[in-house]
Amino acid sequence: MAKGRGIRLRGLGFRLMILMGAALLPLAILSYVQTLAAESVAESRARAAILGETLLAASPQIDLLMQATGTVQTLASTLPQVAGDVDACTPFARGAAGAAGGYFSSGAFPPREGNIEWTPADEAYDMAGSPWLAEMLADPELRLTVNRNGPISGTSILNLSAPVFGPDQRLIGFASVSMAHSAIAARSGVPRPGGDAPLVLLTFDDEGEGLTSSVGMDAAPQKVPVSRPLAGFVGLSGSSFIDTAVSGQRRAFAVVPLSPGKLYLLGSWPADRLEEGGLAAGLPSLTFPLLMWASSLLVAWLAAESQVLRHVRALRDSITAFAGGNRRVPRLDNDAAALEIREAGDAYEQMTEAILHNEAQLENTIHQKEVLLRELHHRVKNNLQLIASILNMQLRGTTSPETQAAMKSVQERVVGLATIHRELYQTSGLADIRADELLPRISRHILRIGSAPERRLALDLDIEDIRLTPDQAVPLALFLTEGVTNALKHIWQADEAGARIAVQFERLPEGMALLTLRNTVLESARSEDLALDSLSDGFGIKLLSAFALQLDGEMTRRRVGRDFVLRLSFPLQALHQGEHRVAPSPQED
């Protein structure tokens, strides 16, 4: 399975995917950069939108502050006209504050000495030494002050004060208007669920302390961001962000300065008001570029698959099958393929047709050669049999025992050669010869010629299926013929029956083969007839040695008990080296 994965990773389809992915990667990077830019613009717009909506929701409170500022400035410009009567200044300021629609809790004219008639009961109140008066005297200007414990109402108030100058431009006091934070909260646009206004509006001072809340001061601490204290927004311009509230809810917050450095407004919105703008989108910014890159890669792969890969695979499968020996070549369906692939497919079909035609011609040539070679073996066999017949005729006309013995020996060898050519003619192959077909036939034929009715011999065969080249089959067959013939001669020297001949041919390690010829030696045989040097008349030993030399083999002879053993070991020749001769023939010796 690992091999299959390795092939797929080295395949054309995988390489095309890698190249197309690399080619499309710059587009993905460009898309990612554009997505980041678009998200940045969307985030900026969302922040600006939520700040604007928060300002719009806080507009009643801002209007009230503007109205209070106008009232204070009006008092500061009017009070110098009645400054001659100090006791009339505070009632005048209080009356002006009461005419503002009930949003101002009080109005007053604290002189620079600090003694005023402040309360409705005209109780005297001495402000001398107060921090407020010290700040106003040190820097007389329009000032907004947050007082969590108003001296009159005892509640949290917002005070606006402005310096009052007399006709000689001398500071004579201050015009002061106070507003309860509850009145400011009453002017807020408290939203309804599902509306466009923020769900919570919270005001806080420069120390981060909450002053008013549209959901009540008791619930206000649960609505502020958990990780960003309110004091951290003091001194900053408007901002918006996503955070988790103390209650655990995800909220969008916007902070707007009502009076920079003094009073701030916190608006809390549903979190999706900013998340929809891309600030906290549900998916990473890289998701869309990756999807676009993957879809482009898929489209490119499908195009390559339809136009190239499937046609290349069909051509590959056909070539592989043809190279594996399958000669049933189907027609390639390349009609819809590109021109180059169609041309390659047409060239392949022409090549296969040429190869099939050449193979057919080659098979016909081989068949003709086989017929001619079989005919050659047949005619050689007939000629050798004719020679044997002529020798037999000469043998009958000869009276000398020595001449008859010599001619008989020659006749037997000629018959043996004829037998070999007959078996080569009848064997199943010509380029390679099966030993289990050739050697048993030769052994039986020689034994049949040398046997007689009163002297029957037993033949044991153990021949492995070993393929031999003709250059090795012929000398091996001649060696076996000479060995069996010599064994028959020695067996007939005995007077006892029960003789046996065994032929074994086996494959040895390292490309070697071993032929073993074993024949029994009867008890009545003389010991001098069994000497290795008297195996035959001497000429047979020369022939056996010549055949062994031709096979580049090694011959051994010895007696083992009642048996005489002849062995020949030689290296097997590769079938493609069938015409290579390693030693001269016995006739050349």
Task: Characterise the protein shown here.
This protein is 47% helix and 19% strand. By secondary structure, it is an alpha+beta fold. A hairpin with a 3-residue loop joins strand 15 (500-508) and strand 16 (512-520). The radius of gyration is 62 Å and the shape is rod-shaped.
Count of helical regions: 13
For the report, how would you describe the main beta sheet? 5 strands, antiparallel
Averaged pLDDT: 75
Round the Cα radius of gyration to an integer and report it.
62 Å
Q: Report the principal-axis shape.
A: rod-shaped
Which consecutive residue ranges, at least 5 long each, have pLDDT under 50? 190-197, 526-536, 578-589
Oligomer: single chain
User: Strand order within the widest sheet?
Assistant: 8-7-11-10-9
Distance N terminus to C terminus? 61 Å
Specify the structural class: alpha+beta
The residue fraction in helices comes out at 40-55%
| Number of DSSP-assigned strands | 18
Strand content: 15-25%
